[in-house]
Amino acid sequence: MLRACTRDVSSNGMFIESVDPLWIGAGFSANLMLDHPVKVVCSVKRVEPGRGMGVSLSFPEQQQETYLQLIARLSRTQP
Q1: 29: phi > 0 → left, psi -120 to 50 → alpha, else beta; which?
Q2: Pairing label, strands 27-32, 38-48
C-alpha cells in the first residue's frame, strides 16, 4: 500500500508524487479518496526518479462519471 499525493490531474491521467516510483509499464489500481471514493486503474507512462510518475487512467464504467465531475469542478476553481 502506498499513500501519495497527485498533481497535474486531467481527464486521462495524473502525476503521482512518490520518492520511490514504479517502472514504466507498471500497472496498479488506486482509490482516490474523495467524498465518494473513486477506483482508478493506472498504467505508468513516465518516471521522474525521486519525484514520481506520470500515469494514464482507466475506470470501471460507473466510476468514470464521478471522476469527470471532479475534473470539471477543479477546472472551474482554477484562476
Answers
A1: beta
A2: antiparallel
Q: pTM for this one?
A: 0.79
Q: Which residues contact 10 (CB under 8 A, 6 or more apart)?
A: 71
Residues 54 and 26: their CA atoms lie apart, in Å, by 11
Backbone φ, ψ for residue 65 (5° rounding): -65, -40
Average pLDDT taken over every residue of the chain: 87
The pLDDT tens digits of the residues spanning 43-79 come to 999 999 999 999 999 987 778 888 888 888 877 765 5
